[in-house]
TrEMBL record, chain A:
Organism: Kushneria indalinina DSM 14324
Sequence similarity: Belongs to the binding-protein-dependent transport system permease family. HisMQ subfamily.
Molecular function terms, GO-annotated: transmembrane transporter activity
Name of protein: Arginine ABC transporter permease protein ArtM
Segments forming domain ABC transmembrane type-1: 30-227
Main location, first listed in the record: membrane
Automatic annotation (TrEMBL), chain B:
Source species, domain of life: Bacteria
Localization per Swiss-Prot or TrEMBL: Cell inner membrane; Cell membrane
The protein's name in its UniProt record: Amino acid ABC transporter membrane protein 1 (PAAT family)
One Pfam family named in its UniProt record: BPD_transp_1
Similarity comment: Belongs to the binding-protein-dependent transport system permease family. HisMQ subfamily.
Membrane-spanning segments: 15-39, 51-73, 93-114, 156-178, 198-218
Protein topology in the membrane: Multi-pass membrane protein
Length: 241, 234
């Protein structure tokens, strides 16, 4: 990255805003955004699979409790969830100075907590919908073979449901990328935060924000492309012949 | 009664502002969505192309970035125009960008693109025979839109419309970042001042959940209305 910036520097001489130093800031913001989104999506995915199975469970108490979790997290703005995670943890009496304080002091961890729970809620509903839409015949076939519910989930239901959930999950990934822009509110220097800093330093809203908008667009299109490839591979058996 | 430490009235005002903002931007988004969807389905490439560019750009960029661009950029843009007018004709105009108006325009503009996709799919799902029948009755294109296309389209558009409304409602929380005193901003200020996060954030979260629940009831009613003639009424 450093060499690239060095080689770009001569062309940027006449430009007041896009200098090597601001481009380096944008790059750091890009890394922060991707890191934040990727980690929370990954954790959210691991949470969502068992939650979706629980949501489809015949035991009413478990199903209702998971429904309540998704209803609350999908029904309130992510910004509120972020504020609760950020201020809520930091203002607990006695927490400042305890062993967990270094974790809470860094805004990254509260933001990860809020983002992970939020995407877990949306992903749970996506997977639950896919599990519900499972063709009845396949379930009956699994049972006729004497498969236990565990085995049926592992061999039949999850591989099929997770594949069919792929297009909806792709939308969720892009939604999460766009939602992560609010991380700048709790002083994380993500792409949007960097753009805001550069806007306020140079008072140049058009350059600062249009450039960052293009960065997000490139990321969005890349994610769309990856999911289109994945769908082509994993949903090949569902294509009309 | 919960003691809001003097922030109670401001929280209520904030809730009212959230509602006003959401409803006004929904209206703008529906109008923009209908126009854009019609443009995308038009036979003229001159109309189709800008509509595609608009929807692709809006859907590829985060709401907050667009909001900042429009909110911080609008004042500079307008000032540049008014300065030019002053230089050329000597008219001294001063337009101050009102944050509320900027919020409505931005959210309306963002969700206009999402609505356009919903409406486009719904227009395509309208039975072509019905349109042909209306044409053979000699209906003008406006009458055809008002009496045939729109009511038939709404049946297909309602689920997407409801979804968009829920997302829009939650997006209004972002205006607190650009300085509008909606309920999230009031709650955040109160939290910073009193260090009692849950006292302020939980009621605001419940406020959003209440609006969502009421909207679901309204959606059920609308669904029944636009499904008339398609489903057996019990």
């Amino acid at each position: 990255m450093q060499e690239l910036l060095q080689s770009l520097a001569p062309w940027l001489d006449d430009n007041a805003i896009f200098t090597a130093s601001t481009l380096a800031q944008y790059w750091d913001g890009f890394v922060n955004t991707v890191q934040l989104v990727f980690i929370s999506l990954l954790l959210g995915l691991f949470l969502a699979v068992p939650l979706a199975i629980g949501r489809a469970s015949p035991i009413r108490v478990i199903s209702r409790m998971i429904w309540l979790f998704t209803w609350v997290f999908r029904g309130t703005p992510l910004l509120i969830q972020l504020y609760i995670a950020y201020y809520g943890l930091a203002f607990i009496p006695g927490v400042q100075g305890s062993i967990v304080w270094p974790l809470i002091k860094d805004p990254l961890y509260p933001a990860l907590l809020a983002f992970t729970l939020n995407t877990a809620a949306y992903t749970t509903e996506i997977f639950y919908g896919a599990i519900k839409a499972m063709p009845r015949g396949e379930l009956e076939a699994a049972r006729a073979y004497g498969m236990s519910p565990m085995l049926a989930y592992r061999r039949i239901i999850l591989p099929s449901a997770l594949r069919r959930a792929l297009p909806a999950y792709g939308n969720e990934v892009i939604f999460m990328l766009h939602a992560s822009a609010i991380a700048s509110v709790v002083t994380i220097a993500d792409l949007t935060g960097v753009a805001y800093n550069i806007y306020s330093r140079y008072y140049a809203p058009f350059s600062a924000f249009i450039f960052v908008a293009l960065c997000y667009m490139v990321l969005s299109f890349a994610i769309q492309g990856i999911f289109r490839l994945l769908e082509k591979r994993m949903l090949a058996h569902l294509k009309p012949r | 009664m919960i003691d809001f430490q003097g922030y109670g009235p401001r929280l209520l005002e904030g809730a009212l502002l959230t509602l006003e903002l959401a409803v006004l931007s929904l209206l703008l988004a529906v109008v923009l969505g209908l126009l854009t969807a019609s443009a995308r389905l038009s036979r003229l490439a001159v109309l189709r192309l800008p509509a595609i560019v608009y929807t692709v750009i809006i859907r590829g960029v985060p709401d907050l970035v667009l909001m900042m661009l429009l909110f911080y950029g609008a004042q500079i843009g307008i000032n540049a125009v008014t300065d030019m007018i002053y230089d050329r004709w000597g008219w001294d105009i001063f337009i101050n960008v009102d944050p509320f108006v900027a919020g409505v325009i931005t959210i309306g503009l963002i969700f206009g693109a999402y609505m356009a996709e919903t409406f486009r799919g719904a227009f395509l799902a309208v039975d072509q025979g019905q349109v042909e029948a209306a044409e053979s009755f000699g209906m003008s294109s406006w009458l055809l839109f008002r009496r045939i296309r729109f009511p038939l389209m709404m049946r297909h558009a309602l689920p997407g419309l409801g979804n968009n409304w829920m997302v829009l409602l939650k997006t209004t929380a972002l205006v607190s970042i650009i300085g509008l005193s909606d309920m999230v901003r009031v709650a955040a200020e109160a939290t910073r001042a009193t260090h009692q996060t849950f006292l302020f954030m939980i009621p605001v979260a419940l406020g959003y959940l209440a609006i969502t629940s009421v909207s679901e009831i309204v959606m059920q009613w609308l669904k029944k209305r636009y499904n008339a003639g398609f489903e057996e009424t019990p």
